[in-house]
C-alpha cells in the first residue's frame, strides 16, 4: 500500500496528538509531535535563563540544541530525557512565545521535513498543512469548542493527580490560541485543502474511524 504523509493542525487540546498516535499505530506510520520540538526550545531557554521575549538570545540557543525523538516515544534534549518536563505550564506558554521567531521556525521546519522524507508519517502542529508538508496527501484541521478542550485537559490533569483549575486552563489555552493565530510567521489556520473535523461531540474511536476512512480513500 502507498505510504502517504498526513498533516494534522488545530488549536491547543483539540486531540491532535491523541488521534495522530492512534492512527500512526493503526497504519504503522511514524508519528512526529512538532509541538514537542517548540517545547524543547522553550525548555532550553528556561534552563539557560534566557527570557522568552529575547529573540536574539533564544535564536542563539539553536546552535547548541539537539532534539531526539526516540522510537519509544521519549524526547531527549541534549541527552536529557525531557519527556515530562516539557509538559509543564510554563513551557506551554514559552513554546507559544518562542514559536513566533523566524529563526526558531526555520530551524525546526527543516528538521521536520527531514524526518518526514519518504512518507509514512503523521505530523501534528499548527503549520503542518500550510507550511511544513504543503504537499501532504491528507490534511486535517481538528477543532473542538474551548469548553470541551479545557475540560479534556482538566480531566487529564485530575487523572494524573495534578492540581488543576478549569477556568485557568481555559484562559491559558485561549491566550495561546490567540497568540498562535495572530503571529506574523506561519499562524495557525486551516489550509484551503484541509478537511475540518469538529471533535466536540465525538469519541476518540469515532475520530480515528473517520480519519482512517479518509486515509483509505487516498492510499
Ligand atoms: O494534541 P492536542 O493538544 O490537540 O490534544 P491532546 O494532547 O491529544 O489532548 C486531547 C485530550 O482530549 C486527550 O486526553 C484525549 O483523550 C481527549 N479526547 C480527544 O482527544 N478526542 C475526543 N474525541 C475525546 C477526548
Ligand atoms: O499540546 P498542545 O496543543 O497544548 O501544544 P503543542 O502542540 O505541544 O504546541 C505548543 C506550542 O508550540 C503551540 O502553542 C504553538 O505556539 C507552537 N507550535 C507551533 O508554533 N507550530 C507547530 N507546528 C507546533 C507547535
Ligand atoms: O527536496 P527534498 O524532498 O529532499 O527535501 P525537502 O524539500 O526538505 O522536503 C522534505 C519532505 O518534506 C518532502 O519529501 C515532502 O514530504 C515534504 N514537503 C512537502 O510536503 N511540501 C513542501 N512544500 C515541501 C516539503
TrEMBL record:
GO cellular component terms attached to this protein's record: cytosol
Catalysis performed (reactions): CMP + ATP = CDP + ADP; dCMP + ATP = dCDP + ADP
InterPro entries, alphabetized: Cytidylate_kin (IPR003136), Cytidylate_kinase_dom (IPR011994), P-loop_NTPase (IPR027417)
Stretches assigned to the Cytidylate kinase domain: 6-216
GO molecular function annotations of the record: ATP binding; CMP kinase activity; dCMP kinase activity
Keyword Kinase: yes
Places the protein is found: Cytoplasm
Leader sequence segment: none
Positions bound to ATP: 10-18
Keyword Iron-sulfur assigned: no
One biological process term in Gene Ontology: pyrimidine nucleotide metabolic process
Keyword vocabulary terms for this entry: ATP-binding, Cytoplasm, Kinase, Nucleotide-binding, Transferase
This enzyme's EC code(s): 2.7.4.25
Family: Belongs to the cytidylate kinase family. Type 1 subfamily.
Name the UniProt record assigns to this protein: Cytidylate kinase
Organism, scientific name: Coprobacillus cateniformis
Amino acid at each position: 500500500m502507498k505510504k502517504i504523509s498526513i498533516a494534522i493542525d488545530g488549536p491547543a487540546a483539540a486531540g491532535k496528538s491523541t488521534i495522530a498516535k492512534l492512527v500512526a499505530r493503526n497504519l504503522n506510520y511514524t508519528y512526529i509531535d512538532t509541538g514537542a520540538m517548540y517545547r524543547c526550545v522553550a525548555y532550553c531557554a528556561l534552563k539557560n535563563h534566557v527570557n522568552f521575549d529575547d529573540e536574539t538570545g533564544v535564536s542563539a540557543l539553536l546552535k547548541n540544541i539537539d532534539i531526539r525523538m526516540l522510537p519509544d516515544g521519549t524526547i531527549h534534549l541534549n541527552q536529557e530525557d525531557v519527556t515530562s518536563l516539557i509538559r509543564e505550564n510554563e513551557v506551554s506558554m514559552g513554546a507559544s512565545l518562542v514559536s513566533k521567531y523566524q529563526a526558531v521556525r526555520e530551524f525546526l521546519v527543516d528538521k521536520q521535513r527531514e524526518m518526514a522524507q519518504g512518507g509514512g508519517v503523521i505530523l501534528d502542529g499548527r503549520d503542518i498543512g500550510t507550511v511544513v508538508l504543503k504537499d501532504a496527501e491528507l490534511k486535517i484541521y481538528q477543532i473542538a469548542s474551548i469548553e470541551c478542550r479545557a475540560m479534556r485537559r482538566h480531566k487529564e490533569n485530575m487523572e494524573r493527580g495534578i492540581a488543576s483549575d478549569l477556568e485557568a486552563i481555559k484562559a491559558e489555552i485561549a491566550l495561546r490560541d490567540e497568540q498562535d493565530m495572530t503571529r506574523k510567521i506561519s499562524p495557525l489556520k486551516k489550509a484551503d485543502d484541509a478537511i475540518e473535523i469538529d471533535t466536540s461531540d465525538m469519541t476518540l474511536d469515532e475520530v480515528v474511524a473517520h480519519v482512517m476512512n479518509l486515509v483509505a480513500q487516498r492510499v
